[in-house]
Design a protein that fits this description.
Blueprint: E1 3-4, E2 10-11, H1 18-23, E3 27-29, E4 33-35, E5 41-48, E6 54-66, E7 69-74, E8 78-81, E9 84-87, E10 91-99, E11 109-118, H2 121-127, E12 133-141, E13 152-159, E14 162-169, E15 175-183, E16 189-191, E17 196-200, E18 205-210, E19 223-228, E20 231-242
Parallel strand pairs: 4-12, 13-20
Antiparallel strand pairs: 1-7, 2-12, 3-5, 5-10, 6-7, 6-9, 6-11, 8-10, 11-12, 13-14, 14-18, 15-16, 15-17, 15-19, 19-20
């Protein structure tokens, strides 16, 4: 069974960072990786800008979207080397992501690399394993030939008192959705997010809750405006009745 939880390109996870703020915090680049057909590996750089050692683990998951939510499953298809790292002060470490299968893929494949900053071994022995900082890095493996484009349809759903924006992608390429807003029939905008909303994978759908005022005129003529893969778009929105 996969792990299901909401993901962002960079996710800050749960523990206090007072020590890390003094010592420096693990940095990861790039924040998106893409392997072209025929490529068997890609590199990711981990950096320690501080004056104390940093420790981390790198794990790879197959990324899917089920029932409008992100789903991660362990996979042998893509592995990280090394999976555990120790970075000295002001040092860098190259982590290679290696494809085990060499055959070409029929469609775009999606993965997530989770890079967790861990406490020093002595701290872990006292307190148990705690994740200080987590990066969630998208990785895409492209099929041969043209990658294609996303094809999106937008829907506004209401369940009880909660509104949801659902985006379906019937195209052959993922869609990164950002700076999204809804406009009613009089072109009045309602901001969904000023930053990154998330990804809609090829052939999948993704759903997000949105906060709208009770006075929003969303019965007809609603449009969505957003940046999709960094390009501006505008589309009609299908508004569905309350469930």
């Amino acid at each position: 069974m996969g792990l299901r939880f909401r993901l962002w390109p960079i996710v800050l996870a749960g523990a206090a960072l007072s020590h890390a703020a003094v010592a420096g915090t693990l940095q990861v680049s790039p924040i998106v990786l893409e392997l072209q057909a025929g490529e068997s590996a890609a590199g990711m750089t981990l950096r320690n800008p501080g004056m104390q050692p940093l420790y981390g683990q790198v794990r790879v998951f197959r990324w899917d979207q089920v029932d409008g939510e992100d789903s991660l499953e362990s996979t042998p298809e893509l592995v990280a080397s090394p999976p555990l790292v120790e970075l000295g002060p002001q040092s860098t470490q190259l982590v290679r992501l290696i494809r085990i299968a060499s055959s070409a893929v029929a469609g775009e494949q999606s993965y997530r690399v989770l890079v967790d900053e861990l406490p020093a071994p002595a701290d872990g022995a006292l307190r148990g394993v705690m994740i200080r900082l987590r990066y969630s890095v998208p990785v895409f493996i492209e099929p041969p030939g043209a990658a294609g484009e996303p094809k999106l349809s937008w829907h506004l759903l209401r369940s009880g008192d909660q509104w949801f924006v659902r985006v379906e992608n019937t195209g052959t390429r993922r869609a990164q959705v950002a700076a999204a807003e809804l406009m009613d029939g009089s072109a009045k905008p309602y901001v969904v997010t000023k930053g990154l909303l998330g990804y809609v994978l090829a052939g999948r759908g993704r759903q997000w809750p949105v906060t709208l005022p009770a006075t929003a005129g969303l019965q007809g003529g609603v449009k969505a405006r957003a940046l999709v893969n960094s390009r501006s778009m505008e589309a009609a929105v299908d508004v569905q009745a309350a469930r």
